[in-house]
């Protein structure tokens, strides 16, 4: 299921060159969800159907004359059927529809056949006509998601964001596209503006021309310790030479100590870090004599450890509707791991392991914005207690990272119990809750 959330806070954790960047997860809207946001209709005419879930009244807008949509509005319900019908056509056509529910917007792209295509550069698309279909070839400079196929495409005249890549059946098939950073990729899509980003949404994959260079080792983005040291990178290089480009802002802490073009090996020296975590992207270059090829490697160096009162120090197991991949900044402490449980319509839970001999279970928790929650603690079938009226927090909203500010320790909850043996405690809530700072004393 591909769903989209129009929310600028999604981009807070991701740096982009020119505008807000959407995360890989095509986030489910709490207000309205569709079974698919890409609808294909044959040139000969016909119908296609999607399923829609909504928590309130909804309405479909931007419907062109050639497309019949039934129904165009509805009320709160699950598994509502929406049908798109079009007569036969001699030319392909595209419609970008919007479904508005409770102030949020879900996009649905309807395509009949293949629209008239204009071959263009990225720069021409950026200056081009909204909704017009273009065929573009460029280099994949950054991949932001490997399920839907989100990546940046740059041909030297400009850069486009490809927000989802599909095959000729409209399916996400990223693994079979075999696109890597540095590859030359050709895609077809309709120009769309999201905030200030020019993009193709669900671009049609056409072809890929593999780069002559790629990183062989390390296989994943390396993390250098705070103390610094050496980092060796080995490349697969079918080109005629080897070059390295380091960002100007990173030259103060990382540099090339040796480069062996025959062995395709580069050794970097990383200086000790006395501050916050730092990251850079190193570019490796080669050529076939006619064209340059590149690949990239993200290098991160750990920060100086900071003692945080909000760390999760107990072992835990995620239960239903539990998520631990959202970071938070709490009262100025950044990059904190959180445990979020529950969704807009479903409750959630997790289980923590309390060591033997502990007398207290202490944790920080805030309910979702504009909500009040009740937390229940159980050991097996035995209810250990409840915590009533966990207050909502304005920072507990969206898809993170959360920015939570709490005064006077109002988010701290202490549960006293004599844990004579190691005990697994199930924690659940009747509303969405964000937990952090979990420990036993």
Helices, strands, pairings?
Elements: E1 32-34, E2 38-41, E3 46-54, E4 58-61, E5 67-70, E6 73-74, E7 77-86, E8 93-101, E9 104-112, E10 118-119, H1 122-126, E11 133-145, E12 150-154, E13 159-166, H2 174-177, E14 184-194, E15 197-209, E16 213-217, E17 223-224, E18 229-237, E19 243-245, E20 254-260, E21 265-270, E22 278-287, E23 292-301, E24 316-318, E25 322-323, E26 327-330, E27 333-337, E28 339-341, E29 348-354, E30 358-367, E31 372-379, E32 382-391, E33 402-404, E34 412-419, E35 423-429, E36 433-440
3D structure, described in words:
The strands form eight sheets. Strands 2-9-8-4-6 form a five-stranded mixed β-sheet, with no helix packed on it. It has a five-stranded mixed β-barrel with strand order 11-12-13-15-14. Strands 24-29-35-31-32 form a five-stranded antiparallel β-sheet, with no helix packed on it. The protein is mainly beta. The protein has four domains: about 30-110, Sandwich (Immunoglobulin-like); about 120-210, OB fold (Dihydrolipoamide Acetyltransferase, E2P); about 215-300, Immunoglobulin-like (Sandwich), CATH 2.60.40; about 315-440, Sandwich (Jelly Rolls), CATH 2.60.120. A hairpin with a 4-residue loop joins strand 12 and strand 13. Residues about 1-25 have low confidence and may be disordered. It is about 0% helix and about 55% strand. It starts with about 30 loop residues before the first strand and ends with a strand. It has helices at about 120-125, 175; strands spanning about 30-35, 40, 45-55, 60, 65-70, 75, 75-85, 95-100, 105-110, 120, 135-145, 150-155, 160-165, 185-195, 195-210, 215, 225, 230-235, 245, 255-260, 265-270, 280-285, 290-300, 315-320, 320-325, 325-330, 335, 340, 350-355, 360-365, 370-380, 380-390, 400-405, 410-420, 425-430, 435-440.
């Amino acid at each position: 299921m591909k769903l989209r959330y129009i929310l600028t806070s999604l981009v807070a954790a991701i740096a982009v060159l020119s505008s807000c960047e959407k995360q890989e997860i095509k986030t489910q809207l709490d207000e309205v969800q569709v079974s698919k946001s890409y609808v294909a209709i044959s040139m000969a005419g016909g119908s296609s159907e999607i399923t829609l879930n909504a928590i309130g009244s909804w309405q479909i807008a931007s419907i062109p004359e050639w497309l019949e949509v039934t129904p165009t509005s509805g009320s709160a319900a699950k598994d509502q059927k929406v049908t798109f019908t079009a007569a036969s056509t001699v030319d392909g056509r595209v419609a970008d529809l919007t479904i508005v529910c409770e102030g949020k917007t879900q996009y649905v792209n309807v395509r009949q056949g293949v629209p008239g295509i204009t071959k263009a550069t990225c720069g021409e698309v950026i200056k081009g006509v909204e909704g017009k279909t273009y065929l573009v070839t460029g280099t994949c400079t950054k991949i932001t998601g490997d399920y839907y196929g989100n990546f940046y495409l740059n041909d030297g005249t400009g850069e486009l964001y490809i927000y989802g890549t599909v095959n000729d059946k409209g399916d996400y098939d990223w693994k079979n596209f075999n696109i890597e950073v540095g590859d030359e990729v050709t895609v077809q899509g309709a120009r769309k503006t999201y905030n200030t980003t020019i993009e193709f949404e669900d671009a049609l994959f056409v072809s890929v021309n593999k780069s002559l260079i790629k990183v062989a080792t390390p296989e994943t983005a390396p993390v250098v310790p705070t103390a610094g040291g050496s980092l060796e990178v080995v490349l697969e290089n079918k080109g005629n030479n080897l070059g390295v480009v380091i960002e100007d802002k990173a030259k103060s802490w990382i540099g090339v100590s040796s480069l062996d073009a025959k062995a395709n090996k580069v050794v970097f020296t990383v200086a000790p870090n006395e501050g916050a975590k730092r990251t850079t992207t190193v570019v490796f270059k080669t050529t076939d004599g006619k064209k340059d090829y590149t690949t990239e490697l993200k290098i991160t160096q750990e920060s100086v450890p900071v003692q945080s009162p909000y760390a999760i120090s107990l072992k835990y197991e995620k239960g239903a509707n539990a998520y631990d991949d959202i970071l938070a900044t709490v009262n100025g402490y950044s990059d904190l791991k959180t445990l979020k449980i529950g969704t807009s319509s479903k409750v959630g839970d997790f289980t923590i392991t309390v060591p033997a001999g502990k007398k207290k279970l202490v944790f920080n928790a805030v309910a979702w914005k504009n909500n009040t929650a009740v937390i229940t603690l159980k050991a097996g079938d035995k209810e250990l207690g409840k915590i009533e009226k966990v207050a909502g927090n304005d920072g507990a909203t969206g898809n993170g990272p959360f920015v939570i500010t709490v005064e006077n320790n109002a988010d701290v909850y202490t549960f006293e119990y004599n844990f004579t043996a190691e005990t697994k405690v199930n924690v659940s809530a009747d509303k969405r809750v964000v937990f952090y700072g979990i420990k036993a004393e």
